[in-house]
Amino acid sequence: MPTTLIHNITTLVTNDQSLGKGALGLLQDAAVVLDGTRVAWVGPTADAPAADEAYDAEGRAAIPGFVDSHSHLLFAGDRTQEFNARMEGRPYEAGGIRTTVAATRAATDEALEANLTRYLAEALRQGTTTFETKSGYGLTTEDEARALRVAGRHTDEVTFLGAHIVSPDYADDPAAYVDLVTGEMLEACAPHARWIDVFCEKGAFDGDQARTILTAGKAKGLHPRVHANQLGHGPGVQLAVELDAASADHCTHLTDADVDALAHSETVATLLPGAEFSTRAQWPDARRLLDAGATVALSTDCNPGSSFTSSMPFCVALAVRDMGMTPDEAVWAATAGGAAALRRTDVGHLRPGARADLALLDAPSHVHLAYRPGVPLVSAVWREGTRAV
Ligand SMILES: [Zn+2]
């Protein structure tokens, strides 16, 4: 693969404090050299080494590609009517997931993969170069395993979420469903996943059930992440910290003890403002988490029920406008924060050696992601060294 010099970048976010100013490691009048799938060099345009090919950024800003560490893209159907009803004043309940389960079970493998590919392309156009995605709309051994197999053809960050809700087939016997998830279903799914996740919430799984499921997953080599404290206070965050989950996701309703636990752990608080936007719910308090010293990530939670956006720039804008984050903090959370939530060191930054994932913005600075909400600012994307947009 030839080397590529991207030069004349007005503001470059490296996310490495040793390379530039502040937490984002900002460099002005910068250049980046990509060699194969990796970043080979970062510095001032004036000092840039020669490369086989050159790309003039013409004064645009550049950021590491977004790391979307939480999505649900293995689904069929949509829930326009549910969204419409909710906007007319009816509250969101976890039970709405059943609609998607029925549509997903009825879909062919080809339809499921075509849907996934479509939303991945949509996310890529908006600068997402790493994404995690989950099963959770099959809820049978066969349907969960096939979702993971399809996902695995597109990303390494695959999460087994058989414990999304209790399968409608087990409505009268949730304990038997937990047995299935921790037994035959886990056996079939573990080879196709890196992570195990549980929706620990009233109406889904309680703390004891969630612990049983996550512990069983760990024994099979899967690492935990938890849907925690989205709809109300609960044991999810504490359980995530107790089990050294990579991330506690949502974190909307937190006690002081929850915030403290996150701040003194390696568990990232992943905030998903698309969900609060789409359900007109209370915003998570990012400021409180950051001030306490917790690591915060931002992700889309892209799913057809409660957050049907694939846009990381949209989440950045919401986090700045409504969750008390500065533009710098939100951009860090959407890149380096997402990488931390996936325990990845090769993405989310642009140090030499990083995976060559970079987005150019039609703007002089990354702050425009929040300053110009809803505007398609991402104008070029490289993923693993290849120009993808
Ligand atoms: Zn989710």
From TrEMBL:
**Record text on cofactor binding:** Binds 1 zinc or iron ion per subunit.
GO cellular component terms attached to this protein's record: cytoplasm
Which residues hold N-formimidoyl-L-glutamate? Answer: 137, 303, 305
Q: What does this protein do?
A: Catalyzes the hydrolytic cleavage of the carbon-nitrogen bond in imidazolone-5-propanoate to yield N-formimidoyl-L-glutamate. It is the third step in the universal histidine degradation pathway.
Q: What Enzyme Commission number(s) does the record list for this chain?
A: 3.5.2.7
Which residues are listed for Zn(2+) binding in this entry? Answer: 70, 72, 227, 301
- Output the HAMAP family linked to this UniProt entry: HutI
GO biological process terms held by the UniProt record: L-histidine catabolic process to glutamate and formamide
Coiled coil: which residue ranges? Answer: none
Originating species? Streptomyces longispororuber
Q: Which residues bind 4-imidazolone-5-propanoate?
A: 79, 137, 164, 230, 306
Q: What class of enzyme is it?
A: hydrolase
InterPro entries per record: Amidohydro-rel, HutI, Metal-dep_hydrolase_composite, Metal_Hydrolase
Q: What is this protein called?
A: Imidazolonepropionase
Give the record's pathway: Amino-acid degradation; L-histidine degradation into L-glutamate; N-formimidoyl-L-glutamate from L-histidine: step 3/3
Q: Does the keyword DNA damage apply?
A: no
Q: Where is the Amidohydrolase-related domain?
A: 62-366
Residues involved in Fe(3+) binding: 70, 72, 227, 301
Which is one Pfam family of this protein? Amidohydro_1
Per UniProt, subcellular location reads as: Cytoplasm
Q: Which Gene3D superfamilies match?
A: Metal-dependent hydrolases, Urease, subunit C, domain 1
Cofactor(s) needed: Zn(2+); Fe(3+)
Q: Record's family? A: Belongs to the metallo-dependent hydrolases superfamily. HutI family.
